[in-house]
Amino acid sequence: MNRTTLSFLAGVVALGAVTGFAEMKAPAASGTGTARTAAQLPVERTSLLCPAPSTSDLADTSYTSFTPVTTGTDDSGKAELQSVTEESGDGTADKKKPAKPVLEPKAPGTPATGDSSGADSPALLGTAEGKYAPGWTVQETTEVAAGNGRGLQGVNCTAPDTEFWFPGASTADGRTDYVHLTNPDDSAAVVDIELYGKDGDLKSTVGEGITVEPHASEPILLSTLTDDQETDLTVHVTVRSGRVGASVQALDAKLGGDWLAASTDPAGSLVMPGIPKDATSVRLIAFTPGDSDADLKVRLSSPTGTITPAGHETVHVKAGVTTAVDLGDVTRGEPGSLVLTPTDQSVPIVAALKVVRGKGSKQETAFIPATGAVGTRATSADNSAKGSTLSLVAPTRTATVKVTASAGSGGGTPVSKTYTIKAGTAEDVELPVPGGLKGTYALTVEPQSGGPVYAARTLSATEEGVPGFTIQTLPDDRGTVSVPDTDEDLSVLQK
Question: Cβ(454)–Cβ(472) under 8 Å?
């Protein structure tokens, strides 16, 4: 075999090694003797990791699983969501003992729900195969009635990976932030955690070489990694060996709390969709991991067009330093999405928004990390007839988007609606609701034409006057993968 053939095979092997549980079959050989364009095939196995939801005895957590209907799959497969480890009678982890699933996902097109309560709810590992795998999504939503981090907390369970960026964490007085690391594999993972504040790298050896045992989850309190009290931190998680799922739980004694999901990979331009129209405070946290400073244009996409926030036309992000900018009530009564673009030279950055709603003692916090475009399709679980908001933004070109509401977890009829989002605008669209809805339902977002679309979903639940809310961005659900269409006879590659 020559170098070309080896490179192709190595690429396929590398994809399986990195994504691990996003597996696919190669297309059938045609025997024509020529290579073809890549084919989009549904993935055949998916893994998701859900962090332990809360340490509060007043916490109630629900899990919602959904797989969208995907063409090209067969009728076989299975899916389950269960504790990462199952305890034996003597309190030790017994990985051979079958764990009782938290929920058993239903057939594609119908959500399934499960719940837990209290401070002992474990981290969860989910696996889906066959028809259940493409686009499989699990939402973890927790209501905390009182105390540190009270309010509504939500996170999309994530696939294991080897690197994560979290701008927006904190070790300030009143904040209690944890990095949750979950290992789905049969061998230990070794993880490094780096912290970057307003003056750069917070030198510490405590975050180096953290071992996460097989089938285990470790919550790492950030304040144990440094003595510095930093209002704004960027957390960088890298995995020396193995893979982990990683999320940051940010709890505030006065402002509630939420999960901070990882920012998309460092890029020169970033989009943070879904700022609520009644946001009372928006704070931008940005970081560039390279050696060059970044100068960025700050723009807000609104329903009427693109706006430059007064006094915040640009932001300078010094290399290796976490930069934070208070944008105040930047939306001024209209929903919006923040767009960062380079003023000149493109320098890769990561970023997130800290969003506050409410006033005085009735404030609540959520986070919006920079996210990738919807791509082929994005999926959102755990929506209800009231309290769910879908935000769409088309930062560069007008786009047409199809949104489908699934059947409900307890019954209902799917329904779809198509929207046109004008170039440079962001909208909170009126959601389609399944006919005869019972329970919760899922949304799939599918661009039909035009430019790239970015999306976020907000869940709201006001309790005793406190506007509890949580925001999840909706990048591509990775339901399909591009695979080169080749012949069974690879001799053409050997010439």
Answer: no
Q: How crowded is the C-beta side of 418, counted as CA atoms within 13 Å?
A: 5
**In this predicted model, what pLDDT tens digit does every residue of 54-83 receive, in sequence order?**
888 888 999 999 999 999 888 899 999 999
**Enclosing H/E stretch for 426:** strand 425-429
117: amino acid identity, one letter: S
The two tokens of residue 78 are: 């299975």
**In 202-293, which ranges are E strands?**
210-212, 216-221, 233-241, 245-252, 256-260, 270-275, 279-287
Beta carbons within 8 Å of 100's beta carbon, 6+ residues apart: 82
CA angle 412, 48, 128 (to 5 degrees): 65
Q: Which of 370, 376, 358, 417 is nearest to 395 (CA)?
A: 370
Q: How many CB atoms lie within 10 A of CB 289?
A: 16
Residues 231, 324: contact at Cβ < 8 Å?
yes
- What would the pLDDT profile of 438-479 be if each residue is shown by its tens digit? 999 999 999 999 999 999 999 998 877 778 999 999 999 999
User: For residue 200, which phi and psi values (nearest 5 degrees)?
Assistant: 110, -155
Between 16 and 434, where is the model more confident? 434
Q: Can you point out the beta strands (E) in 2-144? A: 38-42, 45-50, 59-66, 79-83, 112-117, 124-129, 137-144
| pLDDT per position as a tens digit, 194-221 | 999 999 999 888 999 999 999 999 999 9
- Whether residue 494 has pLDDT greater than 60: no
Q: What does the DSSP assignment read for 276-328?
A: -TTEEEEEEEEE--SSS-EEEEEEEEETTEEEPPTT-SEEEE-TTS-EEEEEE
Amino acid at 166: F
3-state helix, strand, coil in the chain (%, to 5): 5, 50, 45
What does the longest C-alpha to C-alpha distance in the chain come to? Answer: 73
What is the average pLDDT across 125-133? 95
Average pLDDT of the chain, as a whole number: 88
